[in-house]
Amino acid sequence: MKQKEHMQSSITCVRNMKKYLLTSLGIFLCWSTSRAQTVIKPDIVSETYFAIVVDKATYNGATDELMAYKKSVEDDGLGTFVIYHGWKNPDQIKNVLKKLYTGRKSPIEGAVFVGNIPIPMIREAQYLTSTFKMPERISWERSSVPSDRFYDDFDLEFEFLKQDEDSTRSNLFYYKIKPESPQYLEMDIYTGRIKPPHTKGDVPGIEMIRAYLSKLVHIKNEQNKLDRMIVSTGHGYNSNSTASWGGEVLAFRSSFPELFKPGNSIKFLNYRNTDFLKDFLITELQREDLDLAFMTGHGTADLQLLNGYPDVSSPQPSMENVARYIRSKMRSAKERGRDMEETKKRFQESLGLSDKWFDDAFNQERIREDSIFNINMDINKNDLNNINARVAYINSCLTGSFQLDDYLAGHYPFSKGKNVVAFANSVGVLQDLWGTQYLGILQHGVRTGQLLRETAFLETHILGDPTYHFYAEDQEELNTLFAQKTIEEEPWEHLLEIGDADLKAYALNKLFAIKEESDFSEELFHIFKTSPYESVRAEAYFLLRRYQNDTFFQAHEMAMKDNYEYIRRKSVFDIVEMGHKELVEKSVDMYLENLEANRITYKLKWAFQFLDYDKVLEALDKRLKNKPTIHNATELYNNLHKKVSYEKEKAKKMKDVLSSSESTDKQLLGEIRTLRAYRYHSLVPDIIAIVANKDKSEEVRIKSLEALSWFGLSYQQDKIKALCQDLMSSSNNKTIIEQAKKTLNVIQDVGKRPF
To answer: What number of CA atoms fall less than 13 Å from residue 709's CA on the CB side?
Structure first.
């Protein structure tokens, strides 16, 4: 009851705003009558609005269902526009949405794209993704990021490049972010896509949309509480670390405490439980009462990857694993036209195998058995006919590749079951994402779109209705608060007083936008030191990271020892990004203190290659050499010493190539591309010298400048900034000036990008 009173206090000022609403929708829509697109006005007045953007053919084919959808959103208190047209390019749509947002006292808070809506394909902005770094010299379709951030982040400035020349992909439009644009995401509205996956034998797309919208209207009337949830973890994710998985279980308990009480349920499914997790997971996803499914694992556009070969210790199953492996490698070699005898000989020598292991690789019965085995390891689109989890969060690569005709995540909302929302990614994503960030707000009736708006990378999307929310007592007040265009301090301060982990974390994010660094930095540090909630401490740390001040550096040292494994793991990312010499001994100590946490030790071994090699070797000698109290100390020392010595020599060879006047452009570009993913801080001066050398080719100088933009947290960042500023003021090469401006902005905005 006390929490309820606090909540009521927190939204009092929000309710008082209602007297300022517009009373004339005619004024609201006066601009639209002169435009080519047709606009159907909202039937209610509300503090914020929603827009359904649909292509003309889909509107004509599903008018009744679209209007029923509009009514269902308005029944929930959110006035809704329906805007349809024969859209020719993304800019037409963005202009409409931007006017509905910026030109009104009561703006839109979100939009959904229904049917055949142009897809922006973003280039030269991979720093806005979680990890995507595909070379852009290859196919544009593959190396661009399908992203609706083009539509929902109005501050981003784009330059149109071209429409796809392939007639089967004419709905793809390529853009790059301008140098003068903000180089971080800050979505103004949330968005969703209702785009059916097309496969052979499917009913036509419009029929699928009609069926989905009819289902959606029914589901939105359920008034369904979030009291049934599942969490699944697939093979090969985060180094299969049990410490990582255990930390997430604790975080879920903090974020969803009600689900752990009698009468509610939360189930944790792990690939270790069974050889074929798919059977269990599909059974759960088809439960009539399932509300939310959070699924973590690897993925492709066609598959959710769940199991690898069985984790076994007894001889016979181990031999079966080896046999399957050999059969798959031999078949793959044959498909690729490789020499079969040479392939066989290589495996015999490397694994010590006799001829019998290869005898049945092409036996038809074995091929059939292996095919069935492989199909049972992963979820494919044929498994998704009846998904009842109302919201599915697919924390995987590529499943949300909505630029393709067929994509796995689209089969969730377009199944015959009760699923209406799927979160998914259009390209590959980082394993170490904070996928559960703010997830707990959904149990309070907050619209799914509001979760997307504050957590999305360039690749993150909602497939389905972004206005959908679960039922909760305070849903109206919270949705009004979350949708406010102007942030007011008082209601968010009140949310900090409520004992709810993810509402507190979300409130910190909002307060960060309006409070002064001098005041809020210390408040965040205090919260980071004292909060019992994993998500609150993680949020406080990530916000302090944006400041990059002395308080953050204190927090970083504490984060390296935090009880939440995810915070410790992310502190290692900052070791890599910063590269300070002062971090060397602390990093070695952290490695020795986390030997049971294999995802952390994996990332630390990765980090050592970017630190001062001599100091790392010195610290290993001091901390690990001849230390009998540390289990397996000699082997650990030898392996780490060997790795760091190898990395030292590798970096020296890179430096030799970069600094040599004899190096070709091809050699230079090969090493420069490496720096987009590998933070060799010691090589930054060599890259700066290449950029400053006017005798180098323009391509090499441009690629070098772009590579330097990935060093935004480096201890070398001031040198990079000085280089960019000098080029902007002294160079007469327009292309160099533009890249220098972009690199400078990317570095300056580094703390504002998702971490």
So the answer is: 25
Phi and psi at residue 103, to the nearest 5°: -100, 10
Tell me which residue has tokens 């390296």.
Answer: 560
CB atoms within 10 A of CB 223: 10
The residue assigned the tokens 């979760």 is: 451
Give 594-598 contacts, CB < 8 A, sequence gap 24+: 594/243, 594/568, 595/631, 596/243, 597/241, 597/243, 597/244, 597/565, 597/568, 597/569, 598/239, 598/240, 598/241, 598/243
Q: Using DSSP, state whether 593 is helix, strand or coil.
A: helix
Q: List the one residue out of 534, 299, 293 whose CA is nearest residue 423.
A: 293
Angle made by CA atoms 108, 183, 455, in degrees to the nearest 5? 55
To which H or E segment does residue 488 belong?
A: none
Any bridge partners for residue 163, and if so which?
173
Ramachandran bin of 204, using left for φ above 0, alpha for ψ from -120 to 50, beta for the remaining angles: beta
CA-to-CA distance for 288 and 337, rounded, in angstroms?
Answer: 49
Helix (H) or strand (E) holding 87: none
The CA angle 615-619-624, to the nearest 5 degrees, is 155
**How far apart, in whole angstroms, are the C-alpha atoms of residue 307 and residue 394?**
16
**Amino acid letter, residue 379:** I
Buried b (16+ CB within 10 A) or exposed e, 28-42: bbeebeeeebebbeb
Show Cβ contacts of residue 605 under 8 Å, excluding neighbours closer than 6 positions. 591, 640, 643
Q: Are strands 108-114 and 119-123 parallel, antiparallel or unpaired?
A: unpaired
Residue 303: phi and psi, rounded to 5, are: -140, 150
Q: How many helices (H) and strands (E) does the chain have?
A: 31, 17
Cα–Cα dist 609/572, whole Å: 13
* pLDDT, position 626: 83
679 alpha-carbon distance from chain centroid: 21
d(CA 128, CA 125): 6
Measured in whole angstroms, how far is the alpha carbon of residue 641 from the centre of its chain?
A: 34
Which residues are within 8 A (CB) of 290 and not within 5 positions of it... i.e. 6 or more apart?
228, 229, 230, 284, 388, 389, 390
Helix axes 734-748, 717-730, angle to 10 degrees: 150
Tokens at 221, concatenated: 């009337």
Alpha-carbon gap, residue 302 to 179, rounded angstroms: 35
Distance, in Å, from the CA atom of 132 to the CA atom of 552, rounded to the nearest integer, reads: 27
- Alpha-helical segments (H) within 62-126: 63-75, 90-102
> Is the separation of the CB atoms in 198 and 405 below 8 Å?
yes
Task: State the Cα angle at 406 between 401 and 409, rounded to 5°.
Answer: 55
Cβ(373)–Cβ(324) under 8 Å?
yes
Cα–Cα distance measured from residue 126 to residue 694, given in angstroms and rounded to the nearest whole number: 27
Rounded CA separation 52/79 (Å): 11
Confidence (pLDDT) at 200: 65
Of 669, 670, 654, 748, the C-alpha closest to 709 is 748
Q: Which CA distances in Å does 214 have to 48, 60, 303, 448?
A: 25, 16, 27, 19
Cα–Cα distance for residue pair 54/142, rounded to 1 Å: 26
For residue 201, what pLDDT is reported?
65
> Can you list the residues of the chain whose pLDDT is less than 50?
1-34
Q: What is the pTM of this model?
A: 0.91
What is the side-by-side order of every strand in the sheet holding 172-177?
145-146, 119-123, 172-177, 158-163
Which residues are 122's β-sheet partners? 145, 175
Half-sphere exposure of 500 (CA within 13 A, CB side): 23
**Radius of gyration in angstroms for the set of CA atoms belonging to the chain, rounded to a whole number:** 27
Residue 540, CA atoms < 13 Å, CB-side half-sphere = 28
Average pLDDT of the chain is: 92
Count of C-beta atoms within a 10 Å radius of residue 229: 24
What tens digit of pLDDT does each residue of 476-509 get? Answer: 999 999 999 999 999 999 999 988 999 999 999 9
For 178, 200, 399, 743, the CA distances from 125, given in Å and listed in that order, are 10, 34, 21, 11
